[in-house]
Amino acid sequence: MAVKPIRIVIITSPDQLEQDWINRLSQEPDVESVERIGSISAGVGFVQQNRPDVVIIDRELEQTEQIIRDIFINVPGTLCIALARSPDVATLRRLVAAGARDIVGRPIDYAELTHSLRSLVSTELDRRTQLMIPSAATHNHTRGKLVVVAAPKGGVGTTVVAANLAVALRRLSGGKVALVDFDLQFGDVAVHLNLVPKYTLQDLLPRSEEIDDAMLDRVMQSHASGVSVLLAPDAPEFAGQVTTEQVNRLLDSLCNRYSYVVCDTWTLIDELTEQLMQRADELLVVATPEVPALRNARNFLERTHEQQLTNGRISFVLNRFPSVNGVSIQDVEKHLRHRVDATIPSEGKFVTESVNRGVPVVSSFPKSWVAQSLLKLAAYVSGDDVVPITLSNDPDAAAARTEHGTPGSGERRGILGMLRGQA
To answer: If residue 199 lies in a helix (H) or strand (E), which one and from where to where?
Structure first.
């Protein structure tokens, strides 16, 4: 029996984070912590940085094998347990060869799982004692990823995307996530998360040279999801007092302390927005399938490329799609001269209720199509090899990208004509 509490990380699918056996495991008296991670790349990164005692992998066989191999190579002191459905001899050999210490069959026998867990930890502890191997509790520091959500037209859902993305990244990665509202005049992240502003950017930016852990702990507001939030100023006139030097120092402080820093921005492409874009590791450009939004998005993307306004990856997010009859992804891409990287469906009932309640849709309606699409976007941002495009609520139909538009081709010529006319 292990003499110290066990730290566990579970890497599973985004829709399997609330399985009963996971909830039960977190209640075990000798378990110190259970981190649930729904992103492969974020999960492996989290394990490398935090070095838990045990990782339980519950993914498809090929993914499980690769995860185990990566952990075994980079964090050999962490024990891996694989979950597999009716594992045959060939499967057992593959997983053991990759570095798995045990394989537990599905459906899960909870008693078998906990016995395996405790037995492996106890054996490993004895081995370390005999060989005098240190437990390697030191954490590797890695700089956090800066994600900027932008749109050249208001009303397309940037705050919905930014707020839900931050919560989803926290849910999938298990890492520390910060959400910053850089809409300095009329930011409403506080409304989307049902937070009452205590401190804002107005309290932090003028003292950016003095930022330390104590100051951030006081100014950043903690959301129920675990996301730390830095809200927009109460006074719109403060926007004119912000300097790029202050913003750079703030971003450095946050990226040194958080795994992900998500920034919501306003539609004005000013010096501040350009600075955020320049620093971004991931720039998400959001638009809806309407002529004004797509026209502005095209101009925005062209300017971004021509003037090299960002060094990070540019991803175009088509929100509220499908919603317009007769418009396909190919129509939008042809107009934009840029690929559509992700789609968020039009499910106004869920989104409107979540905004009015101040509870992100990924938390309030986690099984909805829109929530699953946002979780998939978070997995994409975290580095997983996923295609966050879903044109149907049917999981089988949503798995692959289609070349067909949505029904109603009678309107197709009209909207395409308007797009050409706005080019």
So the answer is: none
From residue 183, how far is each of 180, 239, 272, 318 by CA, in Å?
A: 9, 9, 10, 21
* Environment class of 274 (CB within 10 Å of its CB; exposed 0-12, middle 13-18, buried 19+): middle
**Regarding predicted confidence, which is higher, 354 or 421?**
354
Average pLDDT over residues 108-123: 91
Single out the residue of 381, 187, 189, 182 nearest to residue 273, CA to CA: 182
Q: Where are the alpha helices (DSSP H) in 140-270?
A: 158-173, 189-192, 201-204, 213-219, 244-255
Q: Which pair of structure tokens corresponds to residue 4? A: 């110290």
What are the pLDDT digits (tens) for 184-235?
888 889 999 999 888 888 888 888 888 888 888 889 999 999 999 999 888 7
3-class SS of residue 404: coil
CA distance 242 to 236: 11
As a residue count, the chain comes to 423
Which tens digit of pLDDT belongs to each residue from 342-385? 999 988 889 999 999 999 999 999 989 999 999 999 999 998 88
State residue 44's pLDDT score. Answer: 92
Beta strands in 215-364 (DSSP E): 221-222, 228-230, 260-264, 282-287, 313-319, 342-344
Backbone angles phi, psi at 407, to 5 degrees: -60, 160
What is the average pLDDT value for the chain, to the nearest integer?
85
Of 169, 111, 227, nearest in space to 383 by CA: 169
Q: What is the pLDDT of residue 142?
A: 73
Q: Is the dihedral of CA 330, 336, 342, 344 positive or negative?
A: negative
Q: Would you give the DSSP letter of residue 267?
A: S
Question: Which has the closest alpha carbon to 71: 99, 95, 96?
Answer: 99
**Predicted TM-score of the model (pTM):** 0.76
- Residue 417 CB-density burial (10 A; 0-12 exposed, 13-18 middle, 19+ buried): exposed
d(CA 408, CA 415): 12
Q: Is the pLDDT of residue 128 over 90?
A: no
| 246's tokens | 């202050």
User: What's at 288, amino acid-wise?
Assistant: T
